Amino acid sequence: MVTVLDPSQPLAAPFRQDVQDALTGFLTDQRPVLAGVGTELEAMAQLAEVFTGGGKRLRPAFALWGYVAAAGLPVEETYAALVRAAASLELLHVSALMHDDVMDNSDTRRGVPAAHLQFADLHDRRDWVGAADQFGRAGAILLGDLLLVWSDEMVQTAGLAPAVLGRARPYLAAMRTEVTCGQYLDVVAQAQPLRPDRLQDNIDQVRRVVEFKSARYSVQRPVQFGAAMGDADEQLQAALAAYGSPLGRAFQYRDDLLGVFGDERVIGKPAGGDLREGKHTLLLAYALAGSGEAGQNRLMSLVGSPDLSAEGITEARDIIDTSGARTRVEADIQANLERSLAALDRAPLSGAGREALVSLAHAAVSRSV
User: Whole-angstrom distance between the N-terminal and C-terminal Cα of the chain?
Assistant: First the structure.
């Protein structure tokens, strides 16, 4: 058995390092491919390495421990292929982050300037013609596209047996389709005003976006992908779907709380950034539902302003707290966590897989980053 895997610590440093090593190795192998196209691609190679060099590694962990849930702890001979396949989800994830940052006009990602700003800076430093910001957005979009392509190549070349890959691929396909559709649902939602006279509609719309953009993408499909590699039967896959969807929602709701109340030094992005973006979250929808007319009007005048001051962020936080929204979201996180864990109680999975997935569930919702 693989000694680096400990179900009591499913996100332990040795596992995360194995994921990083798999990513580093794959990207190193791609360098001569890009160099063969032209020296201009060096910026792509460098930024791909920068933005895949951090993160929580939750998706690879859900995939790897989904395998364990179905098949038990892997032997050394299969571990490297499983880690490489699981690590491919990080390339897909970073691809989505690159596109997200362009759509949201975000300034930072993982504690450094967002990709579109780094490409724009390259344009400025080289004194090229045209608009630097337009060049930056184009570069970041293409970097995201390249990472998406590479995510497929990485899993295809992971060393999985054809039958194993054949079982797992439908879950990857569903993951890619659902997150892209969820992204568009989010774009559509952001284009519509939050209406205090249609509070339940606001809440229902946010929940639908979260289900497809985050819940299935962050937990459900990764854990099912891993379980498929372990030859999970329909009963186990159904149980993992019942585990993954509510846990993914709880994960996103925690992210939304951190986006408003988190410590900028810890979360790696500007504090209150979601307020400046006017991001439609369950937290904001609950705040409108729990505020009187004056509070609703004031909150709506604050959120969505790119130059919202620190004082404005503090005022918006106070309105949200007073409305009871923060407490309601915390209650939703706990309810979804309990629903997720209850699904495991009925699931026919290995002991090590059960222990790890329970631990991962708590790690996903009890976090500060």
Answer: 32
